[in-house]
Amino acid sequence: MSSKSEDRREHTCISCGINISGTDAAKFDCPECGTLIYRCSTCRKQSNLYECPDCGFTGP
């Protein structure tokens, strides 16, 4: 269970770096290592690449 302070923390899109707090962003686990990944709706729609900061996995 996440704490309220974690819910308020600012998150950035892993592809473009914008602040995604309060937007229609996706949150998911890295398919390789399980690290939490955040992506904005624009990068998702454009299928922009991302790279996991922990394991280096690259995805669309």
TrEMBL record:
All copies of the Small zinc finger protein HVO-2753-like zinc-binding pocket domain together span: 13-56
Q: Name one Pfam family in it.
A: HVO_2753_ZBP
Q: Give the protein name, as stated in the record.
A: Small CPxCG-related zinc finger protein
Per the UniProt record, the source organism is Natronomonas moolapensis (strain DSM 18674 / CECT 7526 / JCM 14361 / 8.8.11)
